Amino acid sequence: MTIYPDTTFYVALRFFDDTHHEAATDCFEQHGDDIFLWTPWHRVEASNTLRQFARGDQPVLRAADARRIIQRLEADVRAGYFQHIEADWRSVLRTAYKISATHGFSLACRSADLLHVAYADVLDVELFVSFDNDQAALARAAGLQALRPR
Prior knowledge:
- The chain has a five-stranded parallel beta sheet with strand order 3-2-1-4-5.
- It folds into two domains: 2-84; 89-147, no CATH class.
- Helix 7 links the parallel strand 4 (127-129) and strand 5.
- The chain is of the alpha/beta class.
- The relative contact order is 0.19.
- 57% of the residues lie in helices and 11% in strands.
């Protein structure tokens, strides 16, 4: 089975203090024989999310820890835990626009969420995984099977 986890999943999987760390780890172990996809969009958003967690007056983690988690995610890709895959960005953006045109008035959907759902659609994945309820609802509305790990 090909699985497209969104950024909430990948961050939770490797950030031990994340609220969803245990659920992400359980889901990853339950789907050990499946293929977890990693795209350039994951790399951008996961890395930026972790950097943002390390900034401000009350950071969620230290910058050194954010760098370590980013390096771990990149090592996971090199080791084959996550399969690096790319799609034609024109197709992803066209699909994102179509999803927005169809569901943008009725469902909450951030632009970053649209890109994940569109990427998953273009890659024809079998399962979309997210801890973001709005994003999972958007994925379902776009015709994807979606899972929110518990």
